[in-house]
User: Fold this.
Amino acid sequence: RNRNAFRTLFTREPSSKEIDNVTRTLTELAREQLANKPTATAPEQAAALKAAWRQVSLVLLNSNEFVYVH
Assistant:
């Protein structure tokens, strides 16, 4: 998904640093979504990851590279 997002939005491959940053951000955001659910079910984990992707997608869409270059 990381690579696909960068290809779609920026028409280029992401750097390894960008992949690491997005992956770390997704993990942290999903963890925040599940903070009060220590024994989250698989559907709850999937929903948290989906919510994290929505937030990351908005950040990528609002990046200077997307807004001013494309």
